Automatic annotation (TrEMBL):
The chain crosses the membrane at residues 6-28. This is Uncharacterized protein. Keywords: Membrane, Transmembrane, Transmembrane helix.
Length: 38
């Protein structure tokens, strides 16, 4: 639980959000590519 508390206090939480956002965008772009094939 200490790790989560540190992420909430330190701007690292913002980095985590950006990282998750980048993964989400990557998955969306990958899904669009597969859908265009269909």
């Amino acid at each position: 639980m200490r790790g989560l508390e540190i992420l909430t206090f330190i701007p690292g939480g913002i980095i985590l959000l950006l990282f998750l956002g980048a993964i989400a965008l990557a998955m969306i772009s990958y899904a669009q590519r597969t859908w265009w094939r269909l």
